[in-house]
Amino acid sequence: MTAYDLVLRNVRVVTDEQDEPRDADVAVRDGAIVLVAPGIDTTGAREVVDGGGKLAFPGVVDAHQHWGIYNPLDRDATSESRACAQGGVTTALTYMRTGQYYLNKGGPYADFFPEVLDTTAGRSHVDYAFHLAPMSRGHIDEIPGLVEEHGVTSFKVFMFYGSHGLHGRSADQNAFLMTPEGERYDYAHFEFVMRGIQAARERFPDLADQISLSLHCETAEIMTAYTRMVEEAGELSGLAAYSASRPQHSEGLAVSIASYLAHETGLPTINLLHLSSRKAVDAAVRMSRAFPHIDFRREVTVGHLLADIDTAHGLGGKVNPPLRPREDVEALWEYVLDGTVDWVVSDHACCREELKFGEPADDVFLAKSGFGGAEYLLPGLVTEGVRRGLPLGRIAALTARNPAERYGLPTKGRIAPGFDADIALVDPGHTWTVRAAESESTQEYTPFEGFTLTARVTDTFLRGGRILADGKVVGEPNGGYLHRPTSR
Fold first, then answer.
1. How many CB atoms sit inside 10 A of residue 176's CB?
2. CA-derived radius of gyration, the chain
3. Buried/exposed 263-295: b ≥16 CB within 10 Å, e otherwise
4. 3-state DSSP call for residue 482?
5. What is the tens place of the pLDDT at every residue in 427-471?
6. From the DSSP assignment, how many helices (H) and strands (E) are in the chain?
7. pTM
8. pLDDT at 487
């Protein structure tokens, strides 16, 4: 059998297996790549696409998004997956929890998660999966069922929720998190979450390496004290004030606590999320040396690599952890270039303008936290990475293969036979200016407004079907929920 559903001709294939791209064609059948080679015979192929010499990256596995946090989940699943396609993202892993925001419900995941799946079914233009956060003791007991029944293999702890809300200080933890009366979301709970995840790894030994815990590492008590200090001093405003209110050592301390708890509980699969500063990554590196038996993975976001407190466009750049001064941006790039960072994500959290800003609109402490960015993930990383000497193969690893391997997606993240035909074509010679108005996201602003990028995603393929053509989203939603680990 030689006929193919799709032959993508005349591209430069980028994979994590080598630094430089290679000239080749890519043949697809039944949603999977079956051949990567020069001069593939296109006789009988249902579709032939000339890539025009563009770079063919594996579709981005964006391991950190938030659908439904500020907008209805069904609406985000459609609009924000369209933004994904613009950025070459073909797999979105989105964080979900009970409590305020998201579905604004508490209770067991046995009731909550089927509603999440029903709400998103048939709406996404890209494939997707969910990380879940055990917010209560009951949720810890549900972990094995979530793994076995729903293929959820990744979980999350928000360390700063101990006495801090999503946007700032919080005096009523139980109301915000909708947890049972008498329970606390604190270090003891984090320990028991780790024990519960480790118990699941032992129960499912064949899946153990793909069952992991991700941590948002900031320390609530430090942030609460520094927020008060910054507000009382009144010397800083905007993103500079917000960064100072959640200082870099707050991240480092939380990383250290989380790491020791992982050591204490015997949980070896730990993901340290969106590290934003030199102190945070330094702490992560120190902990990996202190506990070499723990398989740490270190994540940064494209936002923290591209923007700082001075260059971001307005208070739309408020995010947790904050955008930092330029010296921290440069430090993150050092860690990307030397291989310390394992993957780069968007932390996409669409928040429309009417919800984002408080009254007065220039008070950063009244603004909501988070912004979109999936549409700029691959273009931004190629733009800045190439300028700094980051090999293209490393970009493929950072955006696709590394998160796919960690999160139970063995069919994603590489352009090679047997893998899903998820491909992003990138024109590395296309200079353009970021404008929020051109995004498919429902967010009307971006902290990257006016940034100049020198690479653009022109076409995106999901399992061999084109979902972005010449920069425009095409077709009906065809993304599916990924029960992990995936297989063909």
1. 17
2. 21
3. bebebbbbbbbbbbbbbbbbbbeebbeebeebb
4. coil
5. 999 999 999 999 999 999 999 999 999 999 999 999 999 999 999
6. 15, 19
7. 0.97
8. 79
